[in-house]
């Protein structure tokens, strides 16, 4: 069993920044690829960003150039730095392991962290 604890969300104005953190109860190097997902009201959960054990990253098109994913294997923690936030980024953000192409590895999810972008 694995547990995810996400934090760092909040309410910001358009153009603002936030950094999310996700602490995992297992060794994330052993898990492999890690990723962030988000779910906006009325929408399905979608993949946002992934990072491999070799720190190769990939992003959904709408966040490219604005979001940065990174990982600290020594802390079993994954981060998502979000810049130039837009109202359409409003969602609950979750992390999980990732299996190709961008599907969540585990069935269990954390509580997520709410991000609200509003003027």
What does this structure look like?
- It is a single chain.
- This protein is mainly beta and 119 residues long.
- Helices cover 3% and strands 48% of the residues.
- The strands form 2 sheets. Strands 2, 4, 5, 6, 9, 10 and 11 form a 7-stranded mixed beta sheet that branches. It has a 4-stranded antiparallel beta sheet with strand order 1-3-8-7, with no helix packed on it.
- The longest helix has 4 residues, at 28-31.
- The protein is globular and about 40 Å long.
- The protein starts with a strand and ends with a strand.
- The mean pLDDT is 97.
Q: In a nutshell, what does this entry contain?
A:
This protein is mostly beta strands and 119 residues long. It is built from 1 helix and 11 strands, in the order E-E-E-H-E-E-E-E-E-E-E-E.
What is the strand and helix layout of this fold?
Blueprint: E1 4-7, E2 10-12, E3 18-24, H1 28-31, E4 34-39, E5 46-51, E6 57-59, E7 67-72, E8 77-82, E9 91-99, E10 103-104, E11 113-117
Mean model confidence by pLDDT: 97
Number of helices: 1
What share of residues are in beta strands?
over 45%
Radius of gyration: 13 Å
Order of helices and strands: EEEHEEEEEEEE
How widely separated are the two ends? Answer: 40 Å
Q: State the assembly state of the protein chains.
A: single chain
Which structural class matches the secondary elements? mainly beta
Share of helix among residues? under 10%
List how many beta strands DSSP finds: 11
Q: Per the principal axes of the C-alpha atoms, what is the gross shape?
A: globular
**Which residues form runs of ≥5 with pLDDT under 50?**
none
Main pleated sheet? 7 strands, mixed
